[in-house]
Amino acid sequence: MSTESSTSSDTRAPVVILVEPQMGENIGMAARAMANFALPEMRLVAPRDGWPNPAATATAAGATHLLESATVFPDTRAAIADLTLVYATTARERGQMKRVLGPKEAVAEARPAIAGGGRVGILFGREREGLWNDEIALADAILTYPVDPAFPSLNLAQAVLLLGYEWFSQSQEGALPFAEVERVPASREMVVSFFDFLEAELDARGFYPPEKRTTMTRNMRDMFLRRGLSEQEVRTFRGVASTLMRSPRKLAGDEPAA
Question: Do 15 and 119 meet the contact criterion of CB atoms below 8 Å apart?
Answer without folding.
Answer: yes
